[in-house]
Amino acid sequence: MTGTTITVGAVDDDRMLLDGLRLWLADVPRIHLAATAPTVGELLTPAPAPGPEPAPATPAGPPCLDVVLLDLLLRDGSSPSDNIRRLRAAGPRVLVISTVADRGRIVAAMAAGADGYLTKDHDLPTLVTALTDIAAGGTAHCPELAFAWAHDDTPARPALSPKERQVLVEYASGLTLKATARRLGISPHTAKYYLDRVKDKYQQAGRPTYTKTDLASRVREDGWGPD
């Protein structure tokens, strides 16, 4: 974030929605809608300014953004998962917005690296809260996302026992294994046993997980957070 201002981009091929976003966010303190585009490619590679010489105020390359609002289904036929990965690779965090609350699409978006998912019928305060939480490193929660996570039984998302999930979340949050064991009222040996089981289940699901950073990524991707 630039100081205390959250710099936002938006990718949507609905011009009326983009105009509405500009009006919505124009008077919101500490949130600046800096760039909009109908495709991810156009957001990341802005067209040069018209005229014989580029305008000095137009920087080369993608804008520096904290969060991008990404429409799930764009008319260019691009893959939602590919769009999310492209944006995350470029730096910004991603809040997916959509007219649909399809469980499979929500799960796939989060697995691709999205930091939140909102349907377009939410109000401005909900959007602002989501942007603020994501810019701070969190995840934007909503009823649709919670429902999708609760009912996700795809093979890529291992079925963790309650205790395995507790150890994963506490350890991935930054605690040592001893501190995790102390918080859960179990021995360090038992905590390590559960953690090894978590890693093994992710390995079997085709998602190798070795380091604490890997574990933190799995918590975010799969929504393994406090209920």
Features:
elongated; alpha/beta; 227 residues; 46% helix; five-stranded parallel sheet
Description:
- With 227 residues, the chain is of the alpha/beta class.
- The protein contains ten helices and five strands.
- The chain has helices at 15-26, 40-44, 80-90, 103-111, 124-135, 143-150, 162-172, 177-184, 188-204, 212-222; strands at 6-11, 31-37, 67-71, 93-98, 116-119.
- The protein has a five-stranded parallel β-sheet, sandwiched between helices.
- α4 (103-111) packs across α6 (143-150) and α7 (162-172) packs across α10.
Helical coverage, percent range: 40-55%
Number of strands: 5
Reading side by side through the largest sheet, how are the strands ordered?
2-1-3-4-5
> What is the structural class?
alpha/beta
Number of helices: 10
Q: N- to C-terminal separation? A: 28 Å
Globally, the shape reads: elongated
Strand content: 5-15%
pLDDT averaged over residues: 84
Q: What oligomeric state do these chains adopt?
A: single chain
- Gyration radius over CA: 20 Å
Q: Characterize the biggest β-sheet.
A: 5 strands, parallel
Low-confidence stretches: 55-61
